[in-house]
Write a structure and sequence with these properties.
Length: about 260
């Protein structure tokens, strides 16, 4: 299990894919692990050198005392790039991972070639919603929020069509350390990158889900409209569009990263 100690925080990561190919960093959503990219890995590993990692507070990464900030989440990515001697990479993040990608695009533009920001928003409020969720997890644990989160992440049709896939994601969510989850909730709560994203210069694709209740498509469109030259794609999915529309998501991602139609 490869890990990096960054300022006292253990970061678990995996490197896979074609030697000598362009680097691609994948960043998970709140409440999942690097395994959330499983539907894409068969294709991506043939075309890219892929770096996946568990965001701090998730999976096999450490759970330092919170609250966290989006700047810390972005700093963890830079630390991984430095440790692995990766000068430049593409970046794809979903939900909280997309928020991390926005921060990186603004604050470390020299390290990234193309950005893909999926099912995400530059601001998710109000703060009271996050405070209520934090309090519930603190008092009752992760199991208390899992059913409601799953219903926001997947459409009813997908839950009926692919119960085994939904169960994999549910298990990731249930296994997330409560302290790590709430510390990352605070990072999302306190983030407002609406003014900053206009500074992103890297070619950017924003992917949204038509039925996304967590980060509605209009929020993704607003991000795309704020970034000069950004492309926008909307899939027939809820929040985890890379699972619900795995083939279309993967095709859209690869086409953009390989410069097709751009």
């Amino acid at each position: 299990m490869p890990t990096l100690d960054h300022n006292g925080t253990r970061l678990h990561y995996q490197v896979e894919g074609a030697e000598g190919a362009p680097w691609l960093v994948l960043s998970n959503s709140l409440g999942t692990t690097l395994d959330m990219w499983r539907p894409q890995m068969g294709t991506l590993a043939k075309r890219f050198r892929v770096l996946r990692y568990d965001t701090r507070g998730h999976g096999e990464s450490g759970v330092p005392a919170g609250p966290y900030t989006v700047g810390q989440l972005g700093g963890d990515v830079i630390a991984l790039l430095d440790a692995l001697k990766i000068e430049r990479a593409h970046f794809c993040g979903l939900s909280m991972g997309g928020m991390t990608g926005m921060w990186l695009g603004v604050n470390a533009p020299q390290r990234f070639d193309r950005l893909v920001l999926c099912n995400t928003s530059a601001l998710i409020g109000p703060a009271e919603v996050w405070n209520t969720r934090i309090a519930k997890v603190d008092a009752e644990g992760m199991a208390s929020i899992v059913p409601a989160v799953i219903d926001r992440w997947f459409t009813p049709a997908y839950q009926q069509r692919a119960p085994q896939e939904v169960a994999v994601v549910r298990d990731m969510l249930q296994r997330t350390p409560p302290a790590g989850y709430t510390a990352n909730c605070a990072a999302v709560r306190d983030m407002d990158q609406r003014a900053d994203v206009a500074k992103i210069k890297a070619p950017t694709l924003v992917i949204a889900g038509t039925h996304d209740l967590a980060t509605p498509a209009k929020d993704g469109k607003a991000v795309a409209d704020s970034i000069p030259g950004a492309r926008y794609a909307e899939l027939d999915a809820a929040h985890l569009s890379n699972w619900e529309q795995a083939e279309e998501f993967t095709r859209t991602l690869v086409d953009f990263l390989e410069g097709k139609g751009v």
